[in-house]
Automatic annotation (TrEMBL):
Presence of keyword Nucleus: no
Transport is among the record's keywords: yes
Family per similarity comment: Belongs to the ABC transporter superfamily.
Principal localisation: membrane
Protein name, entry field: ABC transporter ATP-binding protein
GO cellular component: ATP-binding cassette (ABC) transporter complex, substrate-binding subunit-containing
Amino acid sequence: MARIRLDHIRHAYSADLARSGNYALREVDHEFEDGGAYALLGPSGCGKTTLLNIISGLLTPSEGHVRFGDRDVTLLSPEARNIAQVFQFPVVYDTMTVRENLAFPLKNRKVPKSEIDRRVTDMLQRIGLAEKADRRAQGLTADEKQKISLGRGLVRSDVNAILFDEPLTVIDPHMKWQLRSQLKELHRQFRMTMVYVTHDQTEALTFADKVVVMYDGEVVQIGTPEELFERPKHTFVGYFIGSPGMNVLTCAVEGTDALVSGTRIAIPGGARPTKGAAKTELGIRPEFVRLVPRGQGMPVTVTRVEDIGSERIVRADFNGQKLVAIVGEGEGLPAEADVVFDPSALNLYADSWLVDRS
Ligand code: ATP
């Protein structure tokens, strides 16, 4: 295993695209710690796969360097980097049995037979294919074939890192949970550096110790799931993570208060916006917007209530701005409601970036 360092990486898919400033990755400078479990999370087209392929060596970046430990690997092939990769769609050897598929990368590396048997048998259990160990891969479902791909990547413990590109796309939803927790368990046990690309926040937040959030070719925040939830550094992170995402309300700043559509809201620790900001906004997650009886908070007009079983999602108009609240099971929903914001959950943004209050 090795620490993976990305030094000022930029990538354009052609010289023409570079000339017109059309970069798939605009500037990525980041270090993946040895043995960490990372997710690369972001919307379609933000550059996740491009970045993963630059780490694996399938792509050479237009600019910048990739380092494994102290070694510059920017120009090395994927094989020379000693990386295991699991793609969105299964890559299996159809004529081999499940067991042979898993043993293949180990045989290639001249691992002793008894060790191969031990590791493969263990992995067959983990991916739930022990009973089909001696079946040819050919006749298996896409779901099962993808489990073989996962197993083949995970069975190698000598690699510098394991890279996953949306590996659970073809997996049945029930099995997804199980495989995800197996991945986590394997990570705990073997402490392999894992980088997992997904656009699904649940997948990212349950798998990773650290989530790298990408937007439009750049990394906008790296943090634990808790940090991303509590202190999104950019309004995009607040909105993208969470279900529904964070409310972002246009506001003005007066003294240490925020003024949202004429309503004064005190910011704990003081507002202190960056001087000269063209736009200031207040972020509050729907989980921290409480609905109270009329007269006890700030007036809103409820426009829609969606009951999703365990909770209700309330959409409201707050002096011309849209506001979403989550009302938990057993909590009352007044017919005529006002809202109260939990002060500790307020975040102030200047030109979309969090104003640090620490
Ligand atoms: P998705 O989740 O849809 O796979 P992504 O976040 O992985 O998206 P990338 O596939 O890395 O994003 O793409 C980043 C940008 O680079 C996009 O604008 C995409 O259109 C562009 N791109 C990707 N591959 C190529 C290519 N081979 N040639 C030209 N442009 C490309």
